Amino acid sequence: MPDSAHSVVVTERTITTPRLRLRPWDEADAGPALDVFGSEDVARWLAPAMTRVPDVDAMRELIGRWSAESADNGRPTGRWVIEDIENAAAGRLIGAGSIQALPPEGDDLELAWQLNPTAWGHGYATEAGHALAHYAFGHGEDEVFAVVRPRNERGVATARRVGMEWVGETDKYYDLSLQVFRLRKGDLDISPAAR
User: Quick one: which of 136, 127, 103, 192 has its CA closest to 13?
Assistant: First the structure.
């Protein structure tokens, strides 16, 4: 994860970290995106909000819907491609990140990240979550949340590495029992030991 706020650069809708670029979606991303959202290992944690995407045409249609919903609603919501910019395959789509209003009221903003299973274990999800938090806080939000299914140990660990604190369990989002993690603006880039 980046060691300081200076390692996250936000330009319009693009967020850059030392190893990643988060940028808006394009329909040309459908093929590599299917490697993420077509993976049962990823999709099992997304239902019922989203099911496994079956093919490239369905992925392209979904990207089109995401692009259409990205209209400015006064809050820093959106969906981004996560690209690896550090390695030999620079520019390779390795995942997706988003900031979305949580149902049912939409008052709370959720940070979310999904990575191609081939990119797991390198700290990319943590770095992307951290970058998304900078984006939200840089656009006027005071706190953000992550909601994680209790058995999703990878998701729980990532939320904690982003700097989020566990605040409880609820079933108010998505009608599922979920672990809730929160990050407040003042706690971003503060080590857990210093809190």
Answer: 136
Do 94 and 83 contact (CB within 8 A), yes or no? Answer: yes
3-state secondary structure 39-74: CHHHHCCCCCCCCCCCCHHHHHHHHHHHHHCCCCCC
Tokens standing for residue 26? 């394009």
The conformation of residue 102, written as its DSSP 8-state character, comes to P
Tokens of 21: 């670029």
CB 14 within 8 A of CB 23: yes
Does this model's pTM top 0.85? My answer is: yes
Distance CA 16, CA 61 (A): 26
- pLDDT of residue 17 exceeding 70: yes
d(CA 109, CA 146): 8
Which domains can be identified in the chain, with CATH numbers? 5-142 (3.40.630.30)
